[in-house]
Structure formats: C-alpha cells, structure tokens
Amino acid sequence: MKTFESNPLLDRLPKHLKQFIKPQDYDEYTPINQAVWRYVMRKNVDYLSKVAHESYLIGLKKTGLETEHIPNMYGMNRILKEIGWAAVAVDGFIPPNAFMEFQAYNVLVIASDIRQLEHIEYTPAPDIIHEGAGHAPIIANPEYAEYLRRFGEIGCKAISSSRDYEMYEAIRLLSILKEAEGTPQNEIDAIEKKVEDLQNNMGELSEMALIRNLHWWTVEYGLIGDLNNPKIYGAGLLSSIGESAWCMTDSVTKIPYNIDAAYRSFDITKPQPQLYVTPDFAHLNSVLEEFANTMALRTGGLTGIQKLIQSNALGTIELSTGIQVSGVFTNVIAENNKPVYLQTTGKTALSYREKELVGHATSYHSEGFGSPVGKLKGINLAIEDMSPRDLQAYAIYEGERVTLEFEGNITVSGKIITGTRNIQGKIIIISFTDCTVKHNETLLFQPEWGIYDMAVGKKIVSAYSGPADINSFDLITHVPSSTTIKAQKNSKREELESLYQNIRNIREGKTPVMSIAETFNAVKQNHPKDWLLSLEISELLNKDNDTELLQKVLIHLEKLKQTRPEIAHLITGGLELIFENENVN
C-alpha cells in the first residue's frame, strides 16, 4: 500500500529521510478535529487578511487549503507540485538536521496530527494547523521558497553537540505531554524543568543551536516590512490565533532582523516577548549567507575539525584537493593553530565531490582513518601542486621507498604503491605498503596494519555534519524515544463526536440523524463544558433565521463565558465571525 502521494520530489528523497515519513490516515481525523481546523482557519483567514504578508492569502488559494476540511496530503502534493514543492507527513518533531534536509529537497514536513480542542489557540507540538496552514501557503512566494530551500541546504550541514540531541528529545517529549489530554501536572513540571536546566547549561552554542535560532526568528516567528507596522510571515504566528493577535500589540518588542538573532534563544512553550522584523525576503538570504560564512562548512581549519570531534557524530572534512573524509572524528594533532594530522575511529569513507571513491568504502576503512594535513617540511610547494617532474624529484613515485616529513613533525615512511588523482589531475591519495607514520616519537600507523592510504591536502577547507556521500553509511537508524499520544476514546467522547458529525452533515446538506434543536439539547445536557459545537449551531441557526432557538443557544454561550472565562474570547471571536462577517465560508 502506498503511504504517500508520489511526486518527483518525493521519489528522489534519500532513504534516510524516507524513514521519518508516516502515512496520513485521514480516517483518524474526528468530527471535533475537523471543527477545530475549521474554527482556526476561519479566524485566521478573517484576521490574517489584515495583518499577514500578502503572499499568505495568495498562497492559501495556490496550495488548495480549504477552511472547511483538514487538508489531505494527497491533494496537497498534487497542488504543491505546481509550485515546485512536495509535502510529507511525520510524527511530531523530527531531528533538526533531518527537518532541514527535507527543506533542501523542497519538501515540506507536516506533522499530520491536529491539536486538541483544549489547545485550539496554541500548542507546543507541531501539528497540521501549524505546518499546513502556517508553512504551506507562504512558500507559494518564490523568493521566500528559495530562502527556505537554501536554509535547509545550509542548515543540514550545521554541526550539532551531544547536548543538542538531548534538548531535541526533551522538547519532543514536552510537546507530546503538553498536547496529550490528562497528563499529570507533575509529569509536565518535571520535563519542563529538564528543558529549562538544559537551556541554562548548553555551554557554548553549537552551529545547529545557532541556526535553529535563526530558523525560529524567521521561518517560525518572523515579521516583515516596516518596523512600526510589520506584517506576519512566520508559520508559528500564522497558525496561532492567539499569538498572531498578541504579536501585533506594543507588548511585543519589534527588533530589526540581523545576525544577532542567532544568539537569541527561545522558549517553545511560551509566547515570544520580542520578534524580529526583516525589511523584505531578500534580507533573510543576506543574513543567512552572513551566518553561513561563520560555519565550519566554509571556514574549515582547526576549529572545524574540533567542532566535529566535540559533536561525537558522523561528519565530513574536505581537504584543499577536494578529497572528503567522512566518519566520526576523534582526534586532531595541531601545531601553530593549524591541524597537522586528523583521525577518525570506526567506519570511514573517502569521497570526491560527494561521490564515494572506488575501493574506499566503510568496509575497507572499517577501523578508522588517519592522515597528515599540510605541506612537507622545508618545501614551499605542496604535494597537490607538484608537477609529475616535481613528484619524481622528491621520490614521490610508484615503487619508491620514501620518508615524507610534514610540518608539525609528522613523518610517513614506506614504499609507494600507487596514487589516485582527481579529474583535474591533482593527486588526492597516495597508498603505501610497509608504512610507519609517527608524530615525533608517537606511533600513529605501523606496517602490520596493512596498506596506508594518505589523503593529500595542504589544508582543511570545510567541515560539516553528515557524510559526503549519503550512500556510504547506513543512516536508517532513527528510533524516536517518544511517540505522539492519541486522544482517549470513551462513550462520552464518542457521543460528542457524533453530535459534531451531525451538525457537519446538516451544514453539508447530508441527511442528519437528529435535528439542530435535538443536537443542541444533547450537547447542553450531556456536554455542558463544550463551546465549539454551540458556535457551529449558532452559525446554522443564523443562516436559517431561526431566531427563537438562536437566542437560547446565545444565552447558553453567554453562561459558558461566565463559567469558563478562559474560553470567553474564543466564543466572542467565533460569534464575531458569524454576525459581523456573514460572508465567510
């Protein structure tokens, strides 16, 4: 059985991303879920038409999102295909690198669950309202869509720390527990404290933590235009009926968007006290480029490899010849603030231009890889820059026994078997037999270990997260520590769902099981705390000009506002839609 709508963009996704995709079981959406979607979308379209960037409403039409029904991923994919994007369903938060890599492939990740009625205004858990109604419409703007793709391309290369993954797992669990009904408060308090403790003890922020901040203050919570009268484009604001209104007040500080946003952390569980305003979408790209210039991806060097060692995760360094070493880096020897020897432990692969070199797979380099970096001592010409005549002069030649002394007191002594060149003719690997490698008197490689393959490069030009060639490693390893908790089913809940379905049937011209009056009496008697169904009933009665029953429903809603003040503004907002904007569909 197919689990997602085929689309050329989805067909080219690598296997390690496909592991996060789950089927969207549309039948799991209940009548209450549909009513929640409808309420939020009707409120959003009404309010956001005044405060959102113009691309939002245009995008709603282009992406085929309707106010009446939760979007079907199959339908969304057909429509998104026309603007060069695709969508996949996932279970809640996925690891940040994977999330960004999806974006790099022009694929929108959509958490297909939907928030509970109790969290209709805001949920810390990603859901289809946030992803579908927030992210999808705005990507219809080509300039913004390119920013999102480029962000994913750069962001998935950002190097994480082990703390980042701990934080991801903690936030994922917190969002699940907060969204689930009936979670004991002490459980929420405990995981909130863990998130807070982690936030306060992250140490120096990793590249991934910094770029996630940029993502938060733009893609999720960005404002655009004039500082004094900005418009909304961030998905977190577009999908939150509470925060989209609050963010426009003077209670929220507005700051001109710049690279400082990377160093401003956020709390996912609370409304944001300040927001950044970009003058236009082009400015987002210039700040992203400014940040990318600080990343090891572009700076390489000693700090680049040190970041990979600290991450304790699979990463890649690229040398000046273009050869790429992918593995878990565990050691670097440095002199004068320059790396002179690099070392991985465990499975390692060598690549060139993101393609694994023949004979240099993880099965061959199964126990690690080490190589000097830099120039030979006392020789201005680096090995990579030597002509065939130069190489012969220094005895770097097949069949010759040679001792190469590198800067930083690294020596490689052995008999040269062969060399591998890149497409430009530069030598990128020299293979030795009977080889000894030392740093001063410390032994780094000895003849009994077999053939020694030395990567050639005078400097590290790039260091980044993940492998150079995604096919070199088995990346299908993701097992989330927590899964989304579904709403509990019981007879009372089932009855309420059937009442919602009945009103939906009446609105859609289908045969109802009971009349509007009977439905209202049932909800009032058996579900006195429910407010959304009475709003939907008011809407139908207003259309039918049934003023007598409408008056009774309005009195009931007024009492609910008194007994449940926390939802009074939601009722008021819903009634405004009915009586002030009767043309809203």
Describe the structure.
- It is a single chain.
- This protein is an alpha+beta fold.
- It folds into 3 domains: 236 residues, Phenylalanine Hydroxylase (Orthogonal Bundle); 165 residues, SH3 type barrels (Roll), CATH 2.30.30.100; 90 residues.
- It is 41% helix and 19% strand.
- The protein contains 22 helices and 17 strands.
- The strands form 4 sheets. Strands 7, 8, 9, 10, 11 and 17 form a 6-stranded antiparallel β-sheet that branches. Strands 12, 13, 14, 15 and 16 form a 5-stranded antiparallel β-sheet that branches. The chain has a 4-stranded mixed β-sheet with strand order 4-3-6-5.
- β8 and β9 form a beta hairpin.
- The mean pLDDT is 89.
Which key terms come to mind for this protein?
Aro-AA_hydroxylase_C_sf; five-stranded antiparallel beta sheet; Phenylalanine Hydroxylase; monooxygenase; oxidoreductase; alpha+beta; 22 helices; iron ion binding; six-stranded antiparallel beta sheet; Phenylalanine 4-monooxygenase; 585 residues; SH3 type barrels
